[in-house]
Amino acid sequence: MIPPARILAAVDFSEPSRTALAFAARLARMAGAQLHVVHAEEPLLAAAAHTRGLELSAELRKELRAFTDATWPA
After folding, report:
1. Residue 74: pLDDT over 60
2. At 15, which helix (H) or strand (E)?
3. What does pTM read for this prediction?
């Protein structure tokens, strides 16, 4: 079996996605693969935030960074 070169983990900030991210990180480490983590932004929520002058994308990037940092295996 050929080990993967890239692994994609989609998260929604839930505990099950935290478990999936930790598993994906361990798999990436064992395979020597790159780990890519994504979160899909809700378009209607982003549009509503934009009309209020809020930059939802920047906040989500901060939250995603905190989520991955708190989940990363030792």
Report:
1. no
2. helix 15-31
3. 0.81
